[in-house]
């Protein structure tokens, strides 16, 4: 990392994503990589933002008040600078003004990790890129699930993972890299 302050945004790393209802997932090492990033940020005293998805869908394990709405154990004890919920994909459209919070602190860049790669993580990265932030997407600190398309065909979690990396890189929204690369750049 450079000498500039780079925030860490952890998106929707919640227990509800452990439910089998989501189907097959990829990247079983994502949680360990999220923890490695969080630990490094805490050790350096850098800003950490934790975002949780507060589903409004009836019966969702991500609804507030459900065990699944709680953060995963890897985030236990994290001293976050900001914690808030959202009901849509982008953390920039949550219960607080994330853009304003970052700008007030002079933060112009952030590293993004969390769940799901191709939904809330990708959307937050795209909006952040559109707002002018220097976004680093820690691909191996995310995971997603197989997903059926409108034609009934299924894309695997790995295919969606690669598509997100391609979308973010090709569209200039973010620098897509690994946890190891992020941690070694300090």
Automatic annotation (TrEMBL):
Biological source species: Amycolatopsis speibonae
Isochorismatase-like domain: residues covered: 7-148
Taxonomy, superkingdom: Bacteria
Protein name: Cysteine hydrolase family protein
Gene3D superfamilies: Isochorismatase-like
SUPFAM superfamilies named in the record: Isochorismatase-like hydrolases
Gene Ontology molecular function: hydrolase activity
Swiss-Prot/TrEMBL keywords: Hydrolase
E.C. no: 3.-.-.-
CDD domains xref list: nicotinamidase_related
Top-rank EC class of the record's enzyme: hydrolase
């Amino acid at each position: 990392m450079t000498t500039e302050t780079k925030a860490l945004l952890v998106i929707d790393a919640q227990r509800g994503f452990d439910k089998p209802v989501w189907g097959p997932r990829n990247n079983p090492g994502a949680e360990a990589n999220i923890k490695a990033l969080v630990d490094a940020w805490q050790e350096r005293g850098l800003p950490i933002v934790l975002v949780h998805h507060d589903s409004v869908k009836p019966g969702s394990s991500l609804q507030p008040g459900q065990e699944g709405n709680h953060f995963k154990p890897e985030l236990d004890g994290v001293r976050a600078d900001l914690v808030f919920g959202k009901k849509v994909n982008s953390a920039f459209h949550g219960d607080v003004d994330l853009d304003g919070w970052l700008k007030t602190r002079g933060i112009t860049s952030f590293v993004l990790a969390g769940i799901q790669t191709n939904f809330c993580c990708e959307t937050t990265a795209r909006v952040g890129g559109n707002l002018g932030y220097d976004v680093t997407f820690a691909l191996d600190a995310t995971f997603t699930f197989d997903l059926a398309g409108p034609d009934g065909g299924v894309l695997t979690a790995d295919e969606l993972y690669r598509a997100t990396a391609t979308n973010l890189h090709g569209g200039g929204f973010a620098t897509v890299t690994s946890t190891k690369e992020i941690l070694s750049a300090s």
